Fold this protein.
Amino acid sequence: MNCWEFKNCGREQGGSKAVELGVCPAYPDHGKHCARIAGTLCGGQVQGSFAMKVANCMKCDFYQTPHYDKTYKG
């Protein structure tokens, strides 16, 4: 499962919020390690770099599931 499916954010290509907020930079190849991608959405706000958002991401319900790939090295 990818983050946009789990979070139902609507920022995937063709999603309900894609026109309003733009297609998420994690779509389509980074949905299992989105914390590492700048520009993802959290709490209705576009987030910055990994270093700026890592503390918030670690609290994320998706990040804490087995769906999130913590081993990705990119």
Summary: The two ends are 18 Å apart (CA to CA). The longest helix spans residues 50-59. The chain is about 25% helix and 5% strand. The chain has a mean pLDDT of 93.
